[in-house]
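Title: [Solved] Aspartyl/glutamyl-tRNA(Asn/Gln) amidotransferase subunit B 3D structure

Original question kept below for reference.
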Amino acid sequence: MVREYETVIGLEVHVELATKTKIFCGCSTEFGGAPNTHTCPVCTGMPGSLPVLNKQVVEYAMAVGLAANCQINQNCKFDRKNYFYPDNPQNYQISQLYLPICHDGWIEIETEEGRKKIRIHEIHMEEDAGKLIHDEWEDCSLVDYNRSGVPLIEIVSEPDMRSAEEVIDYLDRLRMIAQYLGASDCKLQEGSMRADVNLSVREKGSEAFGTRTEMKNLNSFKAIARAIAGERARQIDLLESGRQVVQETRRWDDTKEYSYAMRSKEDAQDYRYFPDPDLPPVVISDKWMERVRASLPELQPEKQARYEREFRLPAYDAAIITGSKRLADLFEQTVALGGNPKKVSNWLMVETLRLLKEHGEEPEQLRFSPEHLAKLIALAEEGSVNSTVAKEVFEKMYEEDVDPEAYVEEHGLKTVNDAGALEEVVKKVLENNPKVVEEYRGGKEKVLGFLVGQVMKEMKGKANPAMAGELIRKLI
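Solution (posted by the thread starter after getting help):
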């Protein structure tokens, strides 16, 4: 009898918050600075230095919690998590164990069986550690403390997910919440959103959990999906061969598509937590919490419903556009400048997504402005450029955010709508293609496209194809 297995997954998601300064000091959080240039005595753990809490961190954490249907702990506090590691300058991390800022929330995802709630156990605030850089030439490790003290929230789910698809949907919805709130850019490639995957398998129908492993710091949705598939298969192979799964932390190698044991992990590791003596408790008044609640923007589900209702967009288009705050902002701003909603949607859904895929980029990396997109759509709508030229101009706009009006003028790309000039070219094409003309006269309508194409070729793509088609019919 073949045994069937069920995957049980819970996530710990770290999200770097988009504050200008760190959680307990005034150092910059900007990504990409020279090593150890965004540091001070506080974030490098110098003796005698004292932390001061960044108020914006609390507000971002509260906003994410409210958007994720969490309860807010109006009296919360910070604790010290003690452990030794080279990138941890104080030999402890300031985090929240006993009274996290948010608890008991949920996010709804879509599954094949319908909607499903993924419970959130808690969201807590903490500081990030530094970063170890391994130098293979010198056979040593160097440490960069720029990231040390960057504010994080850790979002801990319950083990409610059963597949990679559910995990990706949950992560995508978390990312959208943080981006819509402006709480984080959630760039996985820069580490501002990282997921630790806790995974176990059990026989279908069993209520007891299997032994879980933890895969740390996965930084792309594709890597997460592959890691889940790989770890599920590894655990099932162990159980089928009569061996046990060891509770441990594992590192996923996405190139080799295999995970390696890093260290064993007990159920309750002794981090010797105790309340941080340098930070007073955080007291959140009703007034403060209601002010943050009132400032919450329209989030993705409400925005999608509005796009379908107000702009008459198909549900699929509305879901894709609102799935990225950058795309949604571009759409709304272009429409506000006079763009037809369906035309704007088409440019985003077709050409923009195509170029994003070709360049391997995310919507957040788009450089062109809504003003330039609105101008290009207007040029195409009024017939100043044909569709081929419009796509050519858009590609240039995508790369360099050129002004489409200026670009068309400068490169002589304006559509020729002069009937006299066009008629001369059409006559020449008909004279050069007598056989095709006879086929058309014989009822073969499809050859019209070939003749229009020849006119476009003669006029270097600047002819009005509709006008060319009409002239061909008339002259034949």
